[in-house]
Structures are given as C-alpha cells and as structure tokens.
Sequence to fold (214 residues):
Amino acid sequence: MKTSQTGKGKIASIVGITILVLIAWLYSIQPEDLKPKSDLVVNTDATGQVPDEGIKCFDSSKYFAIQKSIPDSVGSNILVKFKSNSDQKMDCAYTPAKNDFEITNDDAEYFLTFTDNYILIDSGTGPEPRVLIAYNLNTGEKVYTDRYSKPVTTIANTITYWSPSETKPSAENCPDLADFTSKGLGALIESKISVDLDSHSITDSGETECVATQ
Fold:
C-alpha cells in the first residue's frame, strides 16, 4: 500500500509540473495584442528616434537645430545642421559632425528662430527685455546683438521686434505708469523696429508701447 501511494504521489507531481509548463507555453505563444502593454508614451522625431532628455529640436527648410540643456545650470548648447534639401529628415540627437555649426552656452542661451541665413539666439535669466543674438550661418560669425521683447517676426533676413528706447516714461506716453509705480514696478518705453541683418540697417515703425519692468 505504501508503494502504491508513493507512486501516485510521483505521478501527481509530474502531472502538476506538466500543466504548469503547458500554461507557460500557451502564454508565450499568445498574440502580442493580448499581452499586457505599458502605458508609457514617448515623443519621437521624424525618423522614429527617441530624443534624449533635455534635448529639443527645431526644423526649417534649410536648417535643423538641436538644443541641449546644461545639467544643473541655465542655458543650452545649440548644434545647427545644414540640410541638403527641404524634405531631409534628421535625428533629434546632439551628435556633432563635420560642417555642423555649434554654439556653446555662454550666458543662458536658447534657440529663438531661423531666418534665411541666420540663427537667432535668446539670452538671459530675467524677464523681458532680454538679449537677442544673431549668427550668420554662412560665416559662423556673431553679427548682431540687441535687447528685445517678443514677439519676433522674420521675413527673409529681416527681423522685427520690440526694442527698449531712450524715451523716459511719463503720464503722457505711459498711461499705466501710476499703476506700475503703485505696485513697485518700473516702466520702459519700447519701439517696434525692423533690422536687416545683411546690411544692419534699422527701420523704426513709429509704434511704441509702455511695459512694466521689475
């Protein structure tokens, strides 16, 4: 009797193991859409690459810029790649290569926009007006710097923005001056100007605005 019970126990064990193996095998051949899925969503660029943390990319018909933030600091390094055609797709990855143009962070710098032949950089750690910097992408030279407030618009190589003026704020040209002052703020008169980056000629639109400053 003892021998019979022992045999039955071994058979039961073998059957149990076999069932477990069978279950595992059946699960392994289930269709992919029946298996548990992660709800993680990642952003990819046009080529399907997953951008590294701290990287942003900006595309135009002629250029592709990769902005890489500086760990434990402000500002970013910016890498510009030159496209061979307007439809060219590039990886959103900070990988310098021959003929690329790199702007290493100097004073809290960030990508702003492209014109036909220039890249505009925003610089600063405080509120507007901040610093606008233009680099000529044909020569790699820094060609223009000014303080500015948004919005910034571009047509060809001409940029338009609000620039601090030398005009002193008064009740006549700054209706909100008393309100600004009561809140402990300063005031600044800005002029809307256009700058041709090729010739450095400046055109004043005649438009002004009064803005609060800290």
Remarks:
- Residues 2-34 form one domain.
- The first helix runs from residue 2 to 28.
- Residues 11 and 49 are 54 Å apart (CA to CA).
- The two ends are 96 Å apart (CA to CA).
